[in-house]
Amino acid sequence: MSSWHPNDGKGQYGGRDVVGYEGKPPHPKWPNGAKVALNFVLNYEEGAENCLLHGDTESEKLLSEMVGAGALEGQRHANMESLYDYGSRAGFWRLHDLLKTVPVTVYGVGMAMERNPAACRAMVQAGWEVASHGYRWWDYQNVDEATEREHIRRTVQIHKDLIGVRPVGMYQGKPNINTRKYVVEEGGFLYDSDAYDDDLPYWNTDYGSKPHLIIPYTLSENDMKFASPNGFSHGGEFSRYLKDSLKYLVEEGQRGAPKMMTVGLHCRLVGRPGRAAGLAEFLEYAKSFGDDVWICRRDEIAKHWYKNHYPEGYGRAPNVDHVGNGMRSNI
């Protein structure tokens, strides 16, 4: 039997690109000569996870204090529900108090946002970007096209109703190979973050007549490792890992190759006090770099990339400075 495959030898195939910038990434030209663009992402998911009370057929199993928990088919999981509720009842407010003066991007799940208007109001009052994290905290791998498209549209409307503006960023989180196509065709999004494949934004031209911006997310500089085997065991380990990552990236930037760094957060995980202490320690460390570290929102990164790195061959870059403005605090 031959080992030959039609994709052999290809660097770009089936939506994948294993070549990228070929070791020669563009200089991002971050504001004030920053060496790193640092973005904190707060995932707001609690109240949208799998639960019989939400019309699902099984309980949630992922990202809780019960590492390795399985889903209960046709049953509620009392402990899992309570662990998630901690995130929206207590963890969110602890993190809001810590980060309310810091530029933050929220990945807001539509169903979860609808359940807690007070949290949405606090996001707006803090000046945070609220990007879409889909309507449900589901795995969309086998969700049919009509349902996923309806979820994308429904969540946009939820943002308009609760935040005052539509989301300009999208992170489905557990997408399928068609999710990006649906996002581009829905329109109105400056970027999506369903990728983990680079330290800088890049353009995708697979769908539509205009380039679509990808701002990669992270599963490594992420508090989800508190809920995974051999992950972070306490806030100090989390802080140390983030410090090491930022220090290394700043040094790369000083050598002429600035990058971006994302820190992924979850209300029910790093919202616990001992872990929040590690996040607070890292935040002070990041601030100590001054202008070398640009702490920013993802929509700010997107607008900067449109203005400074729009690809050739697609005409003049659109003016996106106004996109996403108009959040209101009187919800």
Short characterization:
The chain is of the alpha/beta class. It is 33% helix and 13% strand.
| General form | globular
- Average of per-residue pLDDT values: 96
Total number of beta strands: 11
Fraction in beta strands = 5-15%
- How far apart are the first and last residues' alpha carbons, in Å? 65 Å
Q: Stretches where pLDDT falls below 50 for ≥5 residues?
A: none
SSE order, one letter for each helix or strand? EEEHEHHEHEHEEEHEHEH
Helix content: 25-40%
Radius of gyration (CA) equals 20 Å
Helix-strand category: alpha/beta
Query: Helical segment tally?
Result: 8
The main β sheet shows up as: 5 strands, parallel
Structure keywords:
331 residues; alpha/beta; 5-stranded parallel β-sheet; 4-stranded mixed β-sheet; globular
Structure in words:
There is one protein chain. This protein is α/β, with parallel strands linked by helices and 331 residues long. The chain has 8 helices and 11 strands. Strands 3, 4, 5, 10 and 11 form a 5-stranded parallel β-sheet that branches. Strands 6-7-9-8 form a 4-stranded mixed β-sheet, sandwiched between helices. Helix 4 crosses helix 5 and helix 6 runs parallel beside helix 7. The model has no long low-confidence stretch (mean pLDDT 96).
List the helices and strands and how they pair.
Layout: E1 12-13, E2 16-17, E3 36-44, H1 78-99, E4 104-108, H2 110-115, H3 117-125, E5 129-132, H4 145-162, E6 169-170, H5 179-186, E7 191-192, E8 202-204, E9 212-214, H6 235-254, E10 259-266, H7 273-287, E11 293-295, H8 298-309
Parallel strand pairs: 3-4, 3-10, 3-11, 4-5, 6-7, 7-9
Antiparallel strand pairs: 1-2, 8-9
